[in-house]
């Protein structure tokens, strides 16, 4: 990695500036964390897989008409993206009960949710990303009513598109989170989409193929990510 000043460093990525003020560089790390950073490890090659996986998903969504910040993959670990003014809200879709939903509501893990649920969380590590509603979002000025509706519509559209995409690969998209931001007055999908930010189960065995393998000490995290990428046809190596 070259000597550059990071604008921001998160749990799984470092954000760098670029030659253009309208563009940023995302560097995907091997760091893996859970439980608000209480459990942290480095898993070799995870950053490379997530960078390729994210590029594949973002390009697919763009072809389907979803506006995203993604521009292009630069190298094995880095991608060029638009410089968004991020909205501090996570949009979470759940197709099956798992994780915090099961704990909060006492719902059996794996229960099919029909229709899928859509929840909002404030992106704030110090507060442990509390659950919020649309009234909170508007009242505290995190997003306008129009932006909230746009985030809702785009998130559900992404769910429809990706549920079908993963189903073709023999996978169940259990849940995922999205983040959005503003660029030149328009709303764009930002951040990343990788097995770090979603739950994926094998459609036959219900084996976990995502970061729950790390959370639950199941092992084989990188192998599971690589297998998901293989099934989807994600090119892990950049073409020369």
Automatic annotation (TrEMBL):
Gene Ontology cellular component list: cytosol
E.C. numbers: 6.3.2.6
Pathway this chain belongs to: Purine metabolism; IMP biosynthesis via de novo pathway; 5-amino-1-(5-phospho-D-ribosyl)imidazole-4-carboxamide from 5-amino-1-(5-phospho-D-ribosyl)imidazole-4-carboxylate: step 1/2
Top EC group: ligase
Keywords tagged on the record: ATP-binding, Ligase, Nucleotide-binding, Purine biosynthesis
Catalyses which reaction(s): 5-amino-1-(5-phospho-D-ribosyl)imidazole-4-carboxylate + L-aspartate + ATP = (2S)-2-[5-amino-1-(5-phospho-beta-D-ribosyl)imidazole-4-carboxamido]succinate + ADP + phosphate + 2 H(+)
Signal peptide residues on this chain, from the entry's feature table: none
Pfam families recorded: SAICAR_synt (PF01259)
Segments forming domain SAICAR synthetase/ADE2 N-terminal: 7-231
A GO term, aspect molecular function: ATP binding
GO BP: 'de novo' IMP biosynthetic process; cobalamin biosynthetic process
NCBIfam families per record: purC
Family per similarity comment: Belongs to the SAICAR synthetase family.
HAMAP family: SAICAR_synth
PANTHER family, sorted: MULTIFUNCTIONAL PROTEIN ADE2, SI:DKEY-6E2.2
UniProt protein name: Phosphoribosylaminoimidazole-succinocarboxamide synthase
Organism, as annotated: Acidithiobacillus ferrianus
Gene: purC
